[in-house]
Specification:
Elements: H1 6-32, H2 53-59, E1 62-67, H3 72-76, H4 98-105, H5 109-115, H6 122-129, H7 133-136, H8 140-153, H9 163-173, H10 178-186, E2 189-194, E3 210-215, H11 216-219, H12 224-229, H13 241-255, E4 259-264, H14 279-290, H15 297-317, E5 322-325, H16 337-340, H17 343-353, E6 359-362, H18 369-378, E7 382-385, H19 389-392, H20 394-405, E8 413-414, H21 424-446, H22 452-470, H23 473-480, H24 484-489
The structure holds zinc ion.
């Protein structure tokens, strides 16, 4: 699919930002009976000098630094459950991340399975959610879905009566081009950075809209299935560690020019205490795992430590920042908080060990966000990314922005990543992020920590400019306008 140049999309994004602002104003008026002074109002595509902070935020597009969106074609041609898209009705919006709040609130695993099954009748689906809805409709995850339903489907309340209309509008939105429409016009996003969950790098059909990370989770894991399936550039599959090094080298050589970053969420399975293990020590566990022989936890760790640094050095050689999951775990019932709270200290060692690598520390390390600010303040190569954070805790994120901006340099903060599989939910998340950013900056100005004009000057870098610089987007956009995989397909 041919993509529109960014000049046009920027204008569209600006227009979309105005729509978002209008939604927020409507919702604030509806909920509180009056409009508060810090709510944005529509200000489409204009940033006049002396305008209100809320208007500037509403009119500025986000560079969205983290998503898990599947390809648009997978949504349009949906014919049965596939990774990340279990059904093709309104319940999809509840499948990520609201599924976790619902189940923690009391929805059983069996009822959740029925909710996302394509075979369950739509009215039965709402009956499953309804008893738990009051407990979750005010969390960040719940508010995302409410805002998305309002903004995309024009429906103010989700209930038994409105579900048929929501479903009708859900279905009619999904047609070619709906990703660009949802992201640029409704979420006010100029481009996304996607961490594909089905391949180390995805040859997307919309490279300028859905920029991609290289997953060093898969390339850097003790995953013999991948070793057996992914060849180097000469078609050879790895027989030993040196062979796997060649695969990694060739993968980066092929895709790094078109990737925005390297990304790992290995923090879901281990601490971030990566020792710089030499190849000689990693060779034996590599061969054992390839031969399906047992290894000790220490041997596995040594191999993963080695592969982590191997991939980090490749990323750095190719000018790619390294994005790392830190903090809170997605899902429910599985987070070892003792490991999570070690993330900031473990990362501080990585920051010293690799001064030439830019580490993007994702999700503000919630609930350890104060420690993360200390890393951003202390280490030149630490960048903090608020992706996902606004909906884990909207108010903690607002406080985080306030604390960050008067503590650490403002050029090291990224303020938005939806972190979603269903694109529709990005709309809700972006609205919450705009609201939180507005309140944080308004608050700092009102309390005398920033002048109003200093606060306004921070908006463009925080929403867009920092990300464009850190991920080198001017250069990437030139490369992505001409990707080899679309040429060979047409
Ligand atoms: Zn993510």
């Amino acid at each position: 699919m041919k993509e529109k140049p960014t000049g046009i999309s920027r204008r569209k994004a600006l227009a979309g930002a105005g729509t978002i602002a209008a939604t927020l104003v409507m919702s604030a008026a509806g909920n509180a009976g009056e409009q508060t002074s810090s709510e944005p109002t529509p200000q489409v595509g204009r940033r006049p000098r002396g305008s209100r902070l809320a208007d500037v935020i509403a009119a500025t597009p986000f560079v969205d630094t983290h998503e898990h969106l599947v390809e648009e074609e997978r949504r349009i041609n949906w014919s049965g459950p596939v990774g990340g898209v279990p059904c093709n009705d309104w319940a999809l919006l509840f499948s990520h991340y609201l599924d976790s709040d619902l189940q923690v609130a009391g929805l059983s695993g069996k009822d959740y399975a029925a909710l996302i099954s394509p075979d369950t009748p739509l009215d039965r689906k709402w009956a499953l959610v309804e008893p738990h809805w009051p407990a979750v409709n005010n969390t960040g995850y719940g508010q995302v879905v409410r805002i998305a339903v309002r903004e995309l489907y024009g429906v103010d309340e989700i209930n038994a009566r409105t579900i048929p209309r929501i479903n009708e509008n859900y279905r009619s939105l999904i047609k070619p081009g709906f990703y660009a429409k949802v992201l640029r016009e409704h979420a006010g996003v100029e481009s996304c950075q996607v961490n594909a969950l089905d391949a180390p790098f995805r040859e997307t059909s919309q490279p300028l809209l859905l920029m991609q990370d290289i997953s060093i989770l898969s390339l850097g894991s003790a995953n013999a299935n991948l070793w057996r399936s992914l060849p180097d550039s000469s078609g050879q599959k790895a027989q030993d560690l040196a062979g796997w090094h060649r695969v990694i080298d060739d993968y980066f050589a092929k895709y790094a020019p078109y990737a925005v970053a390297a990304k790992t969420q290995i923090a879901y399975s281990r601490r971030l205490d990566f020792a710089d293990v030499p190849a000689e020590q990693a060779e034996a566990p590599f061969k054992k795992i390839l031969a399906k022989e047992p290894v000790t936890p220490a041997e596995r760790k040594a191999l993963e430590d080695h592969l982590f640094w191997y991939c980090v050095r490749q990323a750095t050689k190719h000018g790619l920042p390294v994005k790392m999951h830190t903090g809170y775990y997605a899902g429910h019932g599985g987070m070892p908080l003792d490991r999570v709270v070690q993330n900031p200290a473990d990362v501080s060692n990585l920051l010293r060990q690799a001064p030439d690598t830019t580490f993007v520390l994702m999700h503000i390390g919630y609930p350890c966000q104060e420690q993360m600010i200390s890393l951003a303040k202390h280490y030149h190569n630490a960048v903090i990314d608020m992706c996902w954070a606004w909906i884990i805790s909207p108010t903690a994120s607002e406080r985080f922005v306030r604390d960050f901006l008067v503590t650490a340099p403002a050029n090291k903060l990224l303020t938005f990543g939806g972190d979603y599989i269903p694109v529709e939910c990005v709309v809700g998340h972006a609205a919450i992020a705009r609201r939180g950013l507005t309140r944080a900056l308004e608050g700092l100005a009102a309390d005398g920590w920033l002048s109003r004009s200093d606060a306004i000057d921070l908006v463009e870098p925080l929403m867009r400019g920092n990300a464009r610089r850190i991920f080198n987007l001017d250069q990437k956009e030139r490369a992505l306008a001409n990707v080899p995989w679309l040429k060979s397909k047409s």
